C-alpha cells in the first residue's frame, strides 16, 4: 500500500497522540515501552554508526551530512529514499505499511547507519560491547524546547504538547518523550571519554559547517577533496534541505504530520527562542538550568 493511502484513522489510531509509559523513569510512547525488550536486546555490530541526539537537535541534518560523506557527495544516491528509511530510527514504531526502526535495521546490510533519541543509560548494551561509533549532537535547551514544542504540535505521533506555558514546565521537568534534556546531554557528555563518541554542538555546526564536517570526516576516517566537501556543505544547508522531499518529511501523510501547522524544517537558527520566551519565563528557565547543570563541564551557547 502506498504511503499516500495511510489515511485510515483506525489503522493509525493508536499512533496518533499516543499514550505514554515510562521506561526506567524516562517517558516513552506506550508502543515503545511495550516493545522495550526487543529494543533493549537489539544487536549492534562493530561497523555500525549511530547518530544519537535529544529530539530536535539537528538529527536529520547530521544524517544528511553523514549520508553525503558515505556516498562521496553523490546527491542522487542520497535521494534514493527518505531519511527515515536510509537510517533506521531504532526505538520508533510506525503504523503499517511504514517500516518500524528495528525491522528496517535488522534487514539492512552492513555497514549500517542508524539513529536514536535514547538517553545514554537506555542505549542497547550491544552498542557498547561492539564498540560501535556514535555521533552525538547537542543543541542549547531553549532552542531545543521551542523546536520540540512546534514539532509536537504538527507531529500527531507525539503526545499533545498543551499550551506553550504548560510545555515549558513539562520540558523543565523532563516529562516529555525521551525524558530530561539535562540528563540526556550530560549523560552522553560523560560517556564520550569511555567510548568512540564524537560529541558535536548544533551551534558550532551552524557557525562553521566546514569545520564540524571535517571533524566528522576525521572520526569516520574518511578523506575528501575540497570540492566534494563544499558540495556537501551546500546540499546540507538548511534552505536546500528544506526543499528536499527525501529529507523534509513531506512524504509522511498529513494525518501523521501536518506541516501546515508547522513545517518539519522550521527555522533552524540559534536564538529563535527569543521570539517565544517572555522575560519572566527566561529568568525562571535560567535559574532552573543553573541548578540542573551545576557541576557539569558542559556549556552551551544560546545564540551565535
Automatic annotation (TrEMBL):
GO molecular function: aryl sulfotransferase activity
Subcellular location(s) per record: Cytoplasm
Full protein name: Sulfotransferase
Top-level taxon: Eukaryota
Domain spans labelled Sulfotransferase: 46-296
Enzyme Commission no: 2.8.2.-
Any Pfam family matching the protein: Sulfotransfer_1
Record's keyword annotation contains Transferase: yes
Lineage of producing organism: Eukaryota, Metazoa, Chordata, Craniata, Vertebrata
InterPro entries per UniProt: P-loop_NTPase (IPR027417), Sulfotransferase_dom (IPR000863)
Keywords for this protein: Cytoplasm, Transferase
Catalysed reaction equations from the record: 3,3',5-triiodo-L-thyronine + 3'-phosphoadenylyl sulfate = 3,3',5-triiodo-L-thyronine sulfate + adenosine 3',5'-bisphosphate + H(+); 3,3'-diiodo-L-thyronine + 3'-phosphoadenylyl sulfate = 3,3'-diiodo-L-thyronine sulfate + adenosine 3',5'-bisphosphate + H(+); 4-ethylphenol + 3'-phosphoadenylyl sulfate = 4-ethylphenyl sulfate + adenosine 3',5'-bisphosphate + H(+); a phenol + 3'-phosphoadenylyl sulfate = an aryl sulfate + adenosine 3',5'-bisphosphate + H(+)
Biological process according to GO: sulfation
Organism: Zalophus californianus
Gene: LOC113937879
Amino acid at each position: 500500500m502506498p504511503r499516500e493511502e495511510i489515511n485510515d484513522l483506525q489503522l493509525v489510531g493508536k499512533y496518533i497522540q499516543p499514550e505514554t509509559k515510562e521506561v526506567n523513569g524516562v517517558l516513552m510512547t506506550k508502543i515503545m515501552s511495550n516493545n522495550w525488550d526487543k529494543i533493549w536486546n537489539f544487536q549492534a555490530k562493530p561497523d555500525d554508526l549511530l547518530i544519537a541526539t535529544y529530539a530536535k537537535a539537528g538529527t536529520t541534518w547530521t544524517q544528511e551530512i553523514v549520508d553525503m560523506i558515505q556516498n562521496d557527495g553523490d546527491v542522487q544516491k542520497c535521494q534514493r529514499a527518505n531519511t527515515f528509511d536510509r537510517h533506521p530510527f531504532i526505538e520508533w514504531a510506525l503504523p503499517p505499511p511504514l517500516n518500524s526502526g528495528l525491522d528496517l535495521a535488522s534487514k539492512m546490510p552492513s555497514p549500517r547507519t542508524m539513529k536514536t533519541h535514547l538517553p545514554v543509560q537506555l542505549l542497547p548494551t550491544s552498542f557498547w560491547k561492539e564498540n560501535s561509533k556514535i555521533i552525538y549532537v547537542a543543541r542549547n535547551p531553549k532552542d531545543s524546547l521551542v523546536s520540540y514544542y512546534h514539532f509536537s504540535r504538527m507531529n500527531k505521533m507525539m503526545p499533545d504538547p498543551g499550551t506553550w506555558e504548560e510545555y515549558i514546565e513539562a520540558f523543565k521537568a523532563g516529562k516529555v518523550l525521551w525524558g530530561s534534556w539535562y540528563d540526556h546531554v550530560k549523560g552522553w557528555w560523560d560517556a564520550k571519554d569511555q567510548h568512540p563518541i564524537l560529541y558535536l554542538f548544533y551551534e558550532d555546526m551552524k557557525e562553521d559547517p566546514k569545520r564540524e564536517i571535517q571533524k566528522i570526516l576525521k572520526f569516520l576516517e574518511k578523506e575528501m577533496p575540497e570540492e566534494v566537501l563544499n558540495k556537501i556543505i551546500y546540499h546540507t544547508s538548511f534552505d536546500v534541505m528544506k526543499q528536499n522531499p527525501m529529507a523534509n518529511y513531506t512524504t509522511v501523510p498529513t494525518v501523521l504530520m501536518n506541516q501546515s501547522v508547522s513545517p518539519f524544517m522550521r527555522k533552524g537558527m540559534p536564538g529563535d527562542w527569543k521570539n517565544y520566551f517572555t522575560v519572566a519565563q527566561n529568568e525562571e528557565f535560567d535559574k532552573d538550568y543553573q541548578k540542573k547543570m551545576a557541576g557539569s563541564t558542559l556549556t552551551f551557547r544560546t545564540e551565535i
